[in-house]
Amino acid sequence: MAAFPRDIDAQNLSFSTSPTASFPSQASSHPGSALANRTIPLANTKHLKPFATEDIKVLLLENVNQTGREILTQQGYQVEFLKSSLPEDELIEKIRDVHVIGIRSKTKLTARVLKEARNLIVVGCFCIGTNQVDLQYAAEHGIAVFNSPFSNSRSVAELVIGEIIALARQLGDRSNEMHNGTWNKVSNKCWEIRGKTLGIIGYGHIGAQLSVLAEAMGMSVLYYDVVNLMALGTACQVPKLETLLSKSDFITCHVPELPETQNMIGKLQFEQMKNGSYLINASRGSVVDIPALIEAMRSGKVAGAALDVYPNEPAGNGDYFNADLNTWGTDIRNLKNIILTPHIGGSTEEAQRAIGVEVAEALVRYVNMGTTLGAVNLPEVALRSLTMDEPNHARVIYIHRNIPGVLRKVNEILGDHNVDKQMTDSRGDVAYLMADISSVDNATIKDLYERLESLSSRIMTRVLY
Predict the structure, then answer these.
(1) Which residue ranges does the record annotate as region Disordered (predicted)?
(2) Of 174, 284, 395, 462, which residue is the catalytic one?
(3) Is 408 helix (H, G, I), strand (E, B) or coil?
(4) What pLDDT, on a 0 to 100 scale, did the predictor assign at position 8?
(5) Are residues 247 and 139 in the same domain?
(6) How confident is the model at residue 4 (pLDDT cuts 50, 70, 90)?
(7) Which long-range contacts link 55-58 to residues 24+ away (Cβ below 8 Å)?
(8) Distance CA 94, CA 76 (A)
């Protein structure tokens, strides 16, 4: 992929002298929020541009929050915004000419899609997960992928706490009965959560926050994770999943979608749970065997459940949650004391604003400066920003296959110039090199670019100026 757009002659490039500016935050609308007054320090920073600003095309899908849209738009990028995801064929047509794409959880960036994205340099996942992107293919073709691993942790943890209470008190059933005109004041099998045991599967950012909230409400906390993690409060890590299942009154899942977590909670695991226990899944739809859950609830083994994620989810809002989407759709809707929500664990105003800021800022840093800090599929490399006092400098980025002899050949090319600073790192089969070169002109930039592009190890060359 070329660092220069097709309609720009490298011979006629001019240096960027974009004025300094601050990125927006949500301080104006929510001054008390955690991200209020947050900006990227840009005083005297030289804004590097890989293309003419107006030629950077951004495609945002799935109703990315306005905070993210504003940050990208204020950079002068051409931003196209859609509220929904797109079927694969339509997505291929849309993605062909864009340099940046922003998605959430429903858009699938498969190898087939990415193969057609001839100008794409970076993907922003405005969510926690990145399993919807073929990360390996993206890395092998020099496409960086960023996400927001922390910003909606509190929102998900609070939803789970609410669902624990709602299930313990059968609030969903009582509410539905009242909506149908039925008064049914009962206490049978309705419980306080104080004194009960919560089992957390996956003690990451969400699980740890949930642990603290649960203890504050008087619950005991057990957790299971594949790595040893320090407990918060008086929570206790157990060595085996079956131990957690047999000792917990409420069980909640917070694990990524991996081959190891496919149907992690199935028929055997339901048999190991306490009679009358409760299950909550706010992680990934593939983690729980739903037909097995339906059977466990019908038998009374499981007294209640809350699901926020499903094996197959609609691409947009509408009357799509039915047996055509998932064969068990009708059966699960007819169960008692089950809470079904449409993947809204992180869907709060606070979380979406925070995600919008975090991911959009990462995209801007990558496009304008080549910084990969926070990338999930490339080595993390950063150099200090160039300043306005360094006008005749260029930043060379060379993404290449991690094979012997590459650095020698690259440094032979760079060695003809004054390299102010340089950093390189590798991740698996892909390596990422950044170097700042002083005293360059348009002819030098063109020469560097063409010589690096000619190397057999090349994945992608970018020159920021």
Answers:
(1) 13-35
(2) 284
(3) helix
(4) 32
(5) no
(6) very low
(7) 55/5, 55/7, 55/8, 56/99, 56/100, 56/367, 57/97, 57/98, 57/99, 57/100, 57/119, 58/98, 58/99, 58/100, 58/101, 58/102
(8) 20
Report the C-alpha gap between 52 and 432 in whole angstroms.
24
Instruction: Identify whether residues 202 and 322 lie together within a single domain.
Output: yes
> Does residue 73 belong to any structural domain of this protein?
yes
Alpha helices in 304-405 (DSSP H): 329-333, 349-369
Residues in the chain: 465
Domain end call among 146, 163, 185: 146
- 316 and 183 share a domain? yes
Dihedral Cα 405, 408, 411, 413, nearest 10 deg: -80
67 and 139 together in one domain: yes
DSSP secondary structure code for residue 55 in this structure = G
Identify the CATH number of the domain in which residue 431 sits.
Answer: 3.30.70.260
The pLDDT-based confidence of 95 (bands split at 50, 70, 90) is very high
Digit-coded pLDDT (tens) for 191-224: 999 999 999 999 999 999 999 999 999 999 999 9
305, two tokens: 């459940």
Would 186 be classed as within a structural domain?
yes
- Domain assignment present for 58: yes
Options 158, 215, 242, 313, the catalytic residue = 313
Task: Say how many domains are in the chain.
Answer: 3
Per the structure, the complete domain to which residue 169 belongs is given by 153-340
**Separation CA 243–CA 222 (nearest Å):** 9
How far out from the chain centre does Cα 130 lie?
A: 5
The predicted pLDDT at position 154 comes to: 95
Under the banding of pLDDT at 50, 70 and 90, the label for residue 400 is very high
Residue 276 is part of a domain; what is its CATH number? 3.40.50.720
284 is known as an active-site residue: yes
Q: Are 167 and 241 in a shared domain? A: yes
Q: How many CB atoms lie within 10 A of CB 302?
A: 25
Q: Specify the 3-state DSSP secondary structure of 108.
A: coil
One domain, residues 311 and 417: no
CA–CA dist 173, 19 (Å, integer): 59
**Per the residue annotation, which of 99, 104, 343, 400 is the catalytic one?**
343
Which DSSP string do the residues of 130-165 spell out, in sequence order?
-TTB-HHHHHHTT-EEE--SSTTHHHHHHHHHHHHH
Rounded CA-CA distance 289/261 in Å is 11
Q: What is the DSSP letter of 54?
A: G
